[in-house]
UniProtKB/TrEMBL annotation, chain A:
Keyword flag Repressor: no
Recorded superkingdom: Bacteria
Pfam families: ABC_tran, OB_MalK
One function term, GO molecular function aspect: ATP binding
SUPFAM superfamilies linked: MOP-like, P-loop containing nucleoside triphosphate hydrolases
CDD domains reported for this sequence: ABC_MalK_N
Name of the protein this chain belongs to: Sn-glycerol-3-phosphate ABC transporter ATP-binding protein UgpC
Keywords for this protein: ATP-binding, Nucleotide-binding, Transport
Family stated for the protein in its record: Belongs to the ABC transporter superfamily.
PROSITE patterns from the UniProt entry: ABC_TRANSPORTER_1 (PS00211), ABC_TRANSPORTER_2 (PS50893)
Name of the gene this protein is made from: ugpC
Residues covered by the ABC transporter domain: 5-235
TrEMBL record, chain B:
Species lineage: Bacteria, Pseudomonadati, Pseudomonadota, Alphaproteobacteria, Hyphomicrobiales
Transmembrane segments: 9-30, 68-94, 106-128, 140-161, 182-207, 243-261
Keywords, alphabetical: Cell membrane, Membrane, Transmembrane, Transmembrane helix, Transport
Positions in coiled-coil regions: none
Protein name: Carbohydrate ABC transporter permease
Length: 355, 275
């Protein structure tokens, strides 16, 4: 693996505020990496540090093998797409696209040729003479993308580029950006707070919280084996159910506390009496006849989108359940719920780490 | 009251108020056109019976107005240029860097704006005479006006710079420009209107400046029109038509510029709507 971007022990302080804490991150050449996390966790700070718009306090930052700690943005050869698009309002689309080339001293005719070419691939050819204010949100987004791809930078940095678009366009652009990435063979770092975007687009997902990388890995590895309770709750939609539990006396089961105790044999050793939090994804629960099911619970809310039905149980804690199709239950009824013990995620109550 | 009558009443009120405000201006123009006897008639006439256009040419000649206006122009252009060159950089820094020192700086800048020119003129006079700047009296006035009006300019232009999103600059940096390049290519063009309008306001202020010019410029051949107009009026003055002609020639160009540019000025002061 060739690392295109490499961070070792990176810290960032804003005055007293510690925004990035000991970040170690290696981004493979040609990969698509998504940075996800809740608002304020430091995603943008990390991305802006890569671009050189923020200087890191300690640690090393390498791009394509060169240490970049003190290198100004213009010499890092990265391209960035901003959430607000940051199109230059006093320049036409064409001038926006060619700006980075003209700054580098490319002759105007050559730059215009490059702009025409990029515009053709992104469907902007008929808009080259317009000003940004004369474009729709989606078109502006395309201009911002095109402006990034017109030169061939060492890395693309995206800061929530889709968050200003409506839902349908967002889904469409997800695919388009990924296709563009593959076609250009680029290295991309993509910041989002939408875990679905991260899961669907990225080769690697980096989950951050409060300036710390909680876990990084392939999307499905994060889904299957979340390293801690935070990642487990963050990845997946609707979010994972968490149930307080204890290690069973037989040393190979857990006792779930859903109002009344419910013992589940997990098939591997669990320290008897150990305090646990058990995670179970809504989509891993199935309906079963009440008399034969593992759990027998009353239903509080039923919501159906047609394709799927979302149940919320009247237990403490509540359980969310997703079933395909209509489900055929109503609020107030008692249903039986089943799940595979192997689908349970066990976390230590104190450290919240996976067991 | 219906919407329509309401609007009419408001309009009538607006016209009345405008009339009161503009009456002195109107009086200046018609007095300049009146003859000697008509000026002192009771009751006064509101329209000159036989307008005397010659007064303007006579006053221009006899009071050497060309020289006065030239001096006013030199001082105004000098002060505006100095303020624009120094003030734009200053405003930009105050717009982009936020910390305690910037806040203190802004506070001091505002404080300066509070001090009246007539209070500042004595220390400035003493200082300048020690430094020998008073040997170049118009330069001395330019520097004094710049010192006085800079805060006003800086605060207006700072607001303009703050309306330019920082992300645009950052985009330019990542696109390969230097900080200065980004400032010149991106920020300046977007702030141009605001800067221009502020500079015009400063220019008009400096064109009419009186206190510093009066106290620092002794030689009549270097005095601006404001001082010239003042020395025209003595305790026993009775050539009101000539004085008003002087005033007319002095203020009409400024008025014309203001009327021509008023749309731009108003939109410049409320600019920031980039999207
Ligand atoms: N210039 C700054 N000065 C001080 N603190 C800052 C500065 N920029 C960011 N921070 C703080 O650093 C933390 C991380 O900010 P950052 O913008 O990276 O969050 P984010 O993960 O991108 O969040 P969001 O999803 O809301 O964009 C926040 O708590 C923020 O308040
Ligand atoms: Mg952010």
């Amino acid at each position: 693996m060739i690392a295109q971007i490499e961070l070792t022990g990176v810290n960032k302080h804003y005055g007293n505020y510690h925004a990035l804490k000991d970040i170690d991150l290696s981004i493979e050449k040609g990969s698509f990496t998504a940075l996800v996390g809740p608002s304020g966790c430091g995603k943008s700070t990390l991305l802006r540090s890569l671009a050189g718009l923020e200087s890191i306090s300690t640690g090393t930052l390498k791009i394509a093998g060169d240490v970049m700690n003190k290198v100004p943005p213009r010499k890092r050869d990265v391209a960035m797409v901003f959430q607000s698009y940051a199109l230059y309002p006093h320049m036409t689309v064409e001038e926006n696209l060619t700006y980075s080339l003209r700054v580098r001293g490319m002759p105007k005719t050559e730059a215009r040729k490059a702009a025409a070419e990029v515009a053709r691939t992104t469907g902007l050819s008929h808009l080259l003479d317009r000003y940004p204010r004369e474009l729709s949100g989606g078109q502006r987004q395309r201009v911002a993308m095109s402006r990034a791809i017109i030169r061939h930078p060492k890395a693309f940095l995206f800061d929530e580029p889709l968050s200003n678009l409506d839902a349908a366009l967002r889904v469409h652009m997800r695919k388009e950006i990924r296709a563009l990435h593959d076609r250009l063979g680029a290295t991309s770092v993509y910041v989002t707070h939408d875990q679905i975007e991260a899961m669907t687009m990225a080769d690697r997902v980096v989950v951050m919280r409060a300036g710390i990388i909680e876990q990084q890995g392939r999307p499905l590895d994060l889904y299957d084996k979340p390293a801690n309770k935070f990642v487990a709750g963050f990845i997946g939609s609707p979010a994972m159910n968490f149930i307080p539990a204890q290690g069973g006396q037989d040393g190979r089961s857990v006792v779930l506390d859903l109002g009344q105790p419910q013992s589940v044999d997990v098939g591997y050793p669990v320290q008897p009496g150990r305090e646990l939090t058990v995670g179970l994804r809504p989509e891993h629960i199935t309906l079963a006849p009440p008399d034969k099911a593992m759990l027998k619970v009353p239903v509080a809310v039923v919501e159906s989108t047609g394709a799927a039905t979302y149940l919320t149980t009247a237990t403490t804690p509540e359980l969310a359940v997703v079933i395909n199709g209509r489900g055929g239950t109503a609020a107030g009824e008692t249903v039986g719920l089943d799940f595979e013990p192997a689908q349970l995620h066990l976390f230590d109550v104190k450290t919240e780490r996976r067991i | 009251m219906s919407e329509r009558t309401h609007n009419r009443v408001m309009l009538a009120l607006a016209i009345l108020l405008a009339g009161i405000y503009l009456f002195p201006l109107y009086w200046m123009y018609i007095t300049a056109l009146k003859s000697g006897s008509e000026m002192f008639a009771t009751p006064p006439s509101f329209w000159p019976a036989a307008p005397r256009w010659n007064t303007f040419a006579e006053v221009w000649q006899s009071r050497q107005m060309g020289r006065f206006l030239w001096n006013s122009l030199v001082i105004a252009i000098g002060a505006t240029t100095l303020i624009a060159v120094l003030g734009v950089g200053c405003a930009y820094v105050l717009a982009r860097y936020r910390n305690v020192w910037v806040d203190i700086g802004l506070f001091l800048v505002l404080m300066l704006q509070v001090l009246p020119a007539s209070l500042m003129v004595t220390p400035i006079f003493v200082g300048f005479s020690q430094l020998g700047v008073l040997d170049y009296p118009r330069l001395a006035v330019v520097v004094a006006i710049a010192a006085k009006s800079m805060p006003f300019f800086v605060i207006l232009v700072r607001a303009t710079f703050m309306a330019v999103p920082q992300e645009l600059e950052e985009a330019a940096l990542v696109d390969g420009n230097s900080r200065i390049g980004a400032f010149v290519n991106i920020v300046l063009p977007l702030a141009r209107n605001g800067i221009l309008v502020s500079a015009i306001l400063i220019f008009m202020q400096a064109f009419g400046e009186f206190v510093y010019s009066k106290s620092m410029i002794q030689g009549i051949e270097l005095q601006p029109a404001s001082v010239g107009l003042n020395s025209f009026m003595g305790p026993n003055t009775n050539e009101w038509n000539n004085i008003m002609a002087f005033a007319t020639i002095y203020v009409t160009p400024i008025l014309a510029v203001f009327v021509l540019l008023q749309r731009r000025i108003v939109s410049g002061l409320t600019s920031g709507a980039l999207k």
